[in-house]
Design a protein that fits this description.
The chain has about 200 residues and is α/β, with parallel strands linked by helices. The termini are far apart. Helices cover about 35% and strands about 20% of the residues. The protein has a single domain, classed as Rossmann fold.
């Protein structure tokens, strides 16, 4: 029987790199979701693709435990959840060319100007994220915040190893334009606009 201990992954020690072959099995393609929240996206995607490994990174303790418990209840064996700061993890502990996809849905927008520096999507983070992707690997970002989206588009366009590709593709877990995270469902119900962008590592 699956237990929380099978799903939860401790953050790496300083200087340590995550070993996806050891975590998911040799050669298994790995997708990561940052800010995985209650785990709705990961649950659907991991159940649809049992031969892939999925790593969810979530900072908020209660929500991360809720998602981990959800994976246990559904018996999902190919998801690991880690409670840590994703920005630090991506910059310091993900091996180059080790991720097939990186999903970031509704990153905290930090709307006040004086808080913009806390936003996840900034050039150093994106450079590290691109280095972590395999060539041909994909980064997909969705937000409900128009002004943050402008920043996201600019940062992605400024990264020479990325080329924009369609967001709405079922192979990436997008069904009729929906990623089906908790925040997406809530915001669509409220009638908020949703902004989406995806890009692929070219070199
Ligand atoms: C607006 S919520 C979106 C959650 C989920 N992706 C969804 O769409 O329902 C943003 C989530 O990202 C998490 N988060 C924000 N910054 C983070 C970071 N640096 N590392 C890990 N998680 C982070 C927050 O705790 C929160 O759960």
């Amino acid at each position: 029987m699956l237990t929380l201990g099978d799903v939860i992954l401790e953050p790496p020690a300083p200087g340590e790199m995550l070993d996806f072959d050891a975590i998911f099995g040799p050669g298994v393609p790995v997708e990561m979701e940052i800010g995985s929240g209650k785990g709705g996206f990961l649950l659907n995607r991991a159940r649809a693709l049992p031969d892939r490994g999925f790593l969810g990174i979530e900072w908020a303790n209660k929500i991360y435990l809720y998602a981990a418990d959800r994976m246990v209840r559904w018996g999902v064996r190919n998801v690991r959840l880690m409670r840590t700061d994703a920005s630090h993890l991506v910059r310091h502990s993900i091996r180059p060319e080790s991720l097939t996809m990186l999903h970031i849905y509704h990153p905290d927008p930090w709307p006040k100007k004086r808080h913009h520096k806390r936003r996840l999507i900034q050039p150093p983070f994106v450079a590290a994220a691109v280095a972590a992707l395999k060539p041909g690997g994909r980064i997909a970002i969705q937000t409900d915040h128009a002004e943050y989206f402008e920043q996201i588009k600019q940062v992605l366009a400024g990264e020479p190893r990325l080329r924009e590709v369609p967001f709405n593709v079922p192979e990436a877990g997008v069904v009729d334009g929906f990623v089906q995270t908790n925040f997406e469902i809530k915001y669509r119900r409220e009638g908020r606009p949703i902004y989406q962008i995806a890009a692929e590592r070219t070199a």
